[in-house]
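stuck on this:

***
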Amino acid sequence: MGDTDYGNQSRVTEFIILGFQGPLNLKVLYFFLFLIIYIMSVMGNATILLLVIMDHHLHTPMYALLANLSSLEIGYVSVTVPNMLVNFFSKLQTISYAGCLMQVYFFTFLGATEFFILGLMSLDRYVAICIPLHYSSIMRSQVFIRLAASAWMGGFVTSTIPVLLLTRLSFCGPNRIDHFFCESFPVLKLSCSSIYLQEIVGVIISAIVILCSFLPTMVSYFLIMITVVKIPSAKGKRKAFSTCASHLVVVIIFYSTMFSMYIKQTGNESSVNKVIAVVYAVLIPTLNPFIYSLRNKEIKDALKKLLHKTKVIF
């Protein structure tokens, strides 16, 4: 099943997603756990997106970038989780060849774009804290739109190239993916063609994406720390730190899990890889809205206004 014959060679037309194995009662537990997490993620990020759109006080580059991030997170979990939920109770647990490539593409595209958006958010915080008097002139709407568009375009370009190269590979042997969704590395391992070019291009593009995001983030926070240290009052330091604390927490969690995943890819500990993938593909998109809203007065105020309007309507 899932193979088409071409002479003496068969070509895989679908893949089997092994996902999380276990007895039925454990799969039921996994199903409801991931379903709850998915609903929380979509609702939390959709709420942030709605607040930024509806409240004019949040029409600033900082919150516009947060809205971009929330849009990414909704797409991020929707690419992987719904199919995983279906597979918990599916006997075949299959995904078509085209469907698998689409999942690889969108997951890579959204992931790369998130790297770029996080980098832009760190630059925004640098300008706001280190050169606040010039913030409005530097982060003009035209500049912000170009930067945000560049982040999305960067994600599109850096994901399209490796996926196009992936389509050139032949899959004629095993079709079992020991993961809970189609991700680039597990799929590459199943190819019966040479994957040398794909691996080299993947490493180069990953390095470009990481450097374009990680380097600005590290430089920005280094300069922010220098500026905060120079602030004379403790209150001023706390205020400066609070403006970037949420973003810093998200950056640390996101980068640490992503780095852990790609360091682990050299080994065969698929169960560990799956757990790490759950963190960055499912848990981080769910936690982000809460991280950004818990310590943010403007988000809380906007939420109170929205809830008040909802009560008035009903």
Q: What stands out?
A: The longest helix spans residues 196-230. Strands lie at 3-6, 9-12, 14-17, 94-96, 176-177. Confidence is low (pLDDT under 50) at residues 4-9. Residues 12-313 form a domain with the Rhopdopsin 7-helix transmembrane proteins fold (CATH 1.20.1070.10).
